[in-house]
# Entry
Amino acid sequence: MADGAAVQPDGDVGLDLLRTMWRIRVFEERVGELTRADEVHGLVHLSVGQEAVAAGVCGQLRRDDAVYSGHRAHGHAIAKGAPLERVMAELMGRADGLCRGLGGSMHLVDVEHGLYGATGVVGGNVPLALGSALAHRLLGSDQVAVVFFGDGAVQGGIFVESVNLATLWRLPVILVCENNGFAEFTPRSAHTNVERVSDVVAPYGVERATVDGNDVVAVRTAFARFLAEARGGGGPLLLECLTHRLRGHYEGDPQRYREALAADEWQELDPILRLQRRGAAEGWLDDDTSSRLEQEAHEQVEEAVRFARESPFPPASLTAELVYAS
Amino acid sequence: MARELPYIAAIGEAIHQEMERDESVLYFGQNLATSEDDPFLKAFGSDRVRVTPISETAEIGMAVGAAFAGYRPVVQLYMAEFMLVAMDQVVNEAPRFHYMTGGQVTVPIVLQAGYGFTAGWAGQHTGSIYGMFMGVPGLKVVVPSTASDAKGLMTASIRDDNPVVYFHHYLLTLVHGEVPEGEHFVPLGEAAVRRTGGDVTIVAIGWMVDKALAAAEQLAAEGISAEVIDPRTLAPLDTATILQSVDKTGRLVVVDQSTRHGSAAAVIAAEVASEGFSSLKAPIQLVTALDATIPYSQPMEDYLLPDEAKIVGAVQQVLGFSPVAA
# Structure
């Protein structure tokens, strides 16, 4: 499996990846519209441009593997199998949302599908994933814990504490860094002199790799190897995915800190276009299939919007019910 | 059967018994089980009893993640102030998850933290900082004042499905008291009436309970009958027992080793002022530490802290015997 060629997607895998990326892309763009229309009313961070990481990683996980995400979590939730309509209902603050409307965009959790935590505080999720990995180890299970975080999280002390402890206790956790080059509103160069996140963990002996995170096949291939190791009890491992956030840090961000990408530059990066080109070249994708997948995603997202709009807001009684677990 | 045990041994006995009773209870912290003769290590092994690096954020975060998977970690933090370096995990992760996920997960962890070591430990190891945790919805806050309660409340804390911050008072460490053998459970959220009386209610927290009882004894010699209430748990707070007492006595003195602003004493006073105003015959008096960092010098330390004389003075004032504020 170390050889990338061994996990070249056959047609079915390729179509699955494309399907997942379209679902995320269309979902995110629709959420952007709904945010501007104030139907999604809170703080929202979209992952347009970063779909390949979510699809390449989560597509290989089992339902009982634990995934942790952060404030930009919609794509991870969708790729891990959270129902679109319940994610959308959550973003609209409705009772049928994943978290009954109490979590919202930054705190998507779907235990049934192994999505444990989206934390809104950068880096706050990393030690939680260690806890899942410790539990898996103690239970004698081959479940794996995966945590997504951005390059901004790496400069926090919590990251170093977690990497140290994970290596000391050899926990089966895979750290997946989505390095989009910007920590909120400032470039990585303003945060650190260390260019590659994978270099930060080098002294701890963490097995690590840096891949083109907009190439879903590269992500999938590298992650497959790490997953096999973690499944066998190895870890921790770190996969750094170099990617691009097409939209602002949050919806409404005027993005004065960077130049907009030119259309041709984006076409070179767009993970969906790249996989489509590849599929056409390899002969497992034609134009009809391609448009059908996009169309299906639109239909599913519209169905999710309908579901969410019809769902009631949560009752006030939920407050007293949920402050403490009984 | 009750026998005498020091407060600290009573806590250890509760943890030991709970670990025996329930395999999901884990115990970790810095400098824990440093020798092979450690009774916890010998009884439960190094999977369940773990020494950690000085990494409070990672320790507590990991405990939260393990709790998602059904474990019940007890994290030994030694000094309450050490929690302050991990506030994101203590405040923003552990107690928020049950609520934010619409009840999908529970976080049964115990953070055991010593406090109030006003014996020359100066500004960073002496804080009585439980008050700041009372304002965090979802956290439970426990402040045992006797060896028996130290055991019973630890048992209840470990069995509770919520994150509990268990504050043990360092100056009570070696104080002996009768402690039941075998299983001993003191429910969280139930105050204890330590002495009954009809003229004034004294609510005293933690180490202050003994001082309030001594003050009550002194006041009895003057013909004043004081009722002394030990809340035992600050969150949830047993407001009903306090209000009931104030309804009888009409006068309230709250004694708290903590600095005054934002203290548990201030919260209790506010609850009584708001819910029991019609019972009050005199303004509520607070006997707290002065709003300053605890100094090193012993006479200065004494100057800042509440003591028996200050409690007696406050009681005399609410009874109209003394015109001077305590």
In short: The first helix of chain B runs from residue 7 to 21.
